[in-house]
Amino acid sequence: MIKKSIQFINYLFFLFFVGLIAIMPFRILYFVADFFAWLLRRVIKYRLQVVKDNLSQSNLSLTTEEKDKIIREIYRNLADILLEGIKSFSMSRASIIKRHKVLNPELIAPYHARGQSLILVTGHIGNWEWGSLSAGLQTPYQILGFYKTIKNTFIDRFIRYSRSKFGTLLAPIKQTSLSFERQKGTPTVFLMAADQNPTRVSQAIWQQFLGRPTAFLHGPEKHAVNNHYPVIFTEINRVKRGMYELTLSVLVENPMACKPGEITSRYVAKLETFIRQNPSSWLWTHKRWKHKPEINQD
């Protein structure tokens, strides 16, 4: 009972903050984001050492000046994503389409015409959060996204409702396989951000990524092969603050023709190319390289 009461009080504070962001014009939102970015980087120093270590241990070959500049941009990107994520709870259909525009939705129209489901992969690049809202508004598909359950049940329920308000289905990550099974017979786009650090390292697919051996989730490749679903890569470019353009490209047409690890390798190559061109648009605050292949592949 006490736990529920504490959760509800936290939920009320959360709703207050959501309401405050809802009435805030975007131009004011980014003034707040700039302050929040400074706070995270200079005062709280949120995972600052992780960011520095990740950049230093990658093979981006940055000068000290370039690294300092990118670190500032990384925290501005993080602050933008956090506040834009909250802002999305109150955004209209028109605003989402305007600000998270799919440039070439015609790429997947032929698949839908023949009733073919797809796996759409991206990374933690640009604003990936708005994808669960925008995808269903700009394509004819049923959209299904996966999410991590939040411990506060009130906040979790609110976020699930908000993320599905334009028709997107949401499923817990633990029900990924079950969700693929349930959607058979319904043309569906499965949204998968495939660059998270895997919890089951024994099942990870190891790839060279930014010059380092890196464990990648096996799920996108496994489900593409098991279900014979083509894989589409989504590049998310920030045109300016609060405005994103999404470009779709076919990563794999026929998963059954791919060798083990090939789908993941193609994904990693696409993701790395994007990061090299837009280094501050990726989420460098993740402890992406905490696993070592020589330790975890026994």
The N- and C-terminal alpha carbons lie at a distance of 45 Å
Into which percentage range does the β-strand content fall? Answer: 15-25%
Helix-strand pattern: HHHHHEHEHEHEHEEEHEEHH
Percent in helix: 40-55%
Number of helices: 12
Strands of the widest sheet, in order across it, are 1-9-8-2-5-3-4
Number of discrete domains: 1
Low-confidence segments? none
* Mean pLDDT over the residues: 94
Biggest β-sheet strands, sense, barrel: 7 strands, mixed
Cα shape: globular
Radius of gyration: 19 Å
Give me the count of strands: 9
Q: What structural class is derived from the secondary structure elements?
A: alpha/beta
Layout of helices and strands:
Layout: H1 2-22, H2 26-43, H3 48-57, H4 64-87, H5 93-99, E1 100-102, H6 109-113, E2 118-122, H7 131-138, E3 142-147, H8 153-163, E4 169-172, H9 176-182, E5 188-193, E6 205-209, E7 212-216, H10 219-227, E8 231-240, E9 243-252, H11 262-277, H12 293-296
Helix pairs in contact: 2-4
